[in-house]
């Protein structure tokens, strides 16, 4: 593992709490005077498969999405190489890099389950060499409907019970796929249940895990 860079990949279906945990991570990291002053946070808009492009939903194909992920990892690698080039005589705070990526390798695995395995494993090995740990955020099946409606109540006002149930089933099925692919991934992954919405507790757990691994 590199001594100059470390980070976390936040995975999970919509409404699992990725954005809330990401915000908490940024706040806690900023409060720690010994933490890295260089922090890179890329939300899902820079790495996901489906994107709203000027009002139109566009889905990347497997090769396009893989190339996008490779470009993001290449950026991190080049920054780490620069830190290594400068030499070892510096603190983590002054020269270290902390990164957070949202919806990344597991998102790709689930979207393209029949893709070429060696390509995504190569990407995961690169992330591993950059000190990445994956965190899969999940919600218990019996409160999925409640979570979805509590996060964006205006979107559900005119939905039928069947539409809500179908959306909940999609959530549960996708979450099961994310779990399956997390077990197949090269990257170390922990699962955090977010039923209680204790975002700072979860963020502290992630930071503690990174510190123990570093």
Automatic annotation (TrEMBL):
Q: Which InterPro entries match?
A: DUF4515, P-loop_NTPase
Lineage, opening ranks? Bacteria, Bacillati, Bacillota, Bacilli, Bacillales
Query: Mind telling me what this protein is named?
Result: DUF4515 domain-containing protein
Q: The DUF4515 domain covers which part of the protein? A: 22-89
